[in-house]
Amino acid sequence: MQIQKIYIKNMVCPRCITAVEQSLKEEQIAFSQVILGEITPENNLTYQQEIALNKNLRLKGFEIIEIGKEKIVNQIKVLLLAYIRNAPTQHEKISEYLTNRLYVDYSHLSKLFSEIQQNTIEQYFLQQKIEFVKELLSYGELNLTEIADKLNYSSVAYLSKQFKEITHLTPTQFQKSQNKNRIALDKI
Fold first, then answer.
1. 3-state DSSP call for residue 92?
2. Which keywords has UniProt assigned to this entry (predicted)?
3. DSSP 3-state assignment of 88?
4. CA atoms of 115 and 111, how far apart (whole Å)
């Protein structure tokens, strides 16, 4: 019998992995791996285990994805976050990147994503990218040129233009502001 993976909604960072692992331990569910958006249990869960785990996860802001379409949308989100975080090594277009990893035609992925999220993949990707820029600016470890390079922007001017379109602030204004409004990645 093949072990069924469990897909989890709203996992966006390493702390999320730790929180989900904690839920599994609290529910005494053995697992072999937890990665963003996905649990590999050691054994298939009983219905009661799945209900208990889902209840525990919801208390922490997560939930088990049960609908096939939602699973694919969640996988798209996880892949886009990985794409953004690993930008220097990425040379594929987003459409190729998703198609090569999900083995589904991009037009189908795009249509499905828009249907479930009421947002396009491109808009979602840009919002996530700008939130990552905000994060990097908040840390103050990289200057704008370094951030533009890290995220494969063609120029600092283009990064600044996109940043202002989304946030209504220039990156410099954002850095100087007292109120650095950042949006939780799972709320985009």
1. coil
2. DNA-binding, Transcription, Transcription regulation
3. helix
4. 6
Q: Which residue has 């886009």 as its token pair?
A: 80
Regions of the chain short of the pLDDT cut 70: 1, 67, 88-90, 179-180, 183-188
Q: Could you tell me if 69 and 116 are in contact, meaning their C-beta atoms sit under 8 angstroms apart?
A: yes
What crossing angle do the helices spanning 106-117 and 94-102 adopt, rounded to 10°?
100
How many domains would you assign to the chain?
3
Tokens at 143, concatenated: 């200057």
Burial class (CB in 10 A: 0-12, 13-18, 19+), 41: buried
Domain end position, chosen among 84, 99, 120: 120
DSSP 8-class letter at 70: H
Is residue 1 domain-resident?
no
CA distance 161 to 168: 10
Evaluate whether 133 touches 159 at the Cβ level (below 8 Å). Answer: yes
Please say whether the dihedral angle defined by the alpha carbons of residues 152, 154, 157 and 160, taken in this order, is positive or negative. negative
Same domain, 155 and 178: yes
pTM greater than the 0.85 cutoff = no
Q: Could you give the count of Cα atoms lying within 13 Å of 95 in the half-sphere of its Cβ?
A: 7
Question: Strand, coil or helix: what is 148?
Answer: helix
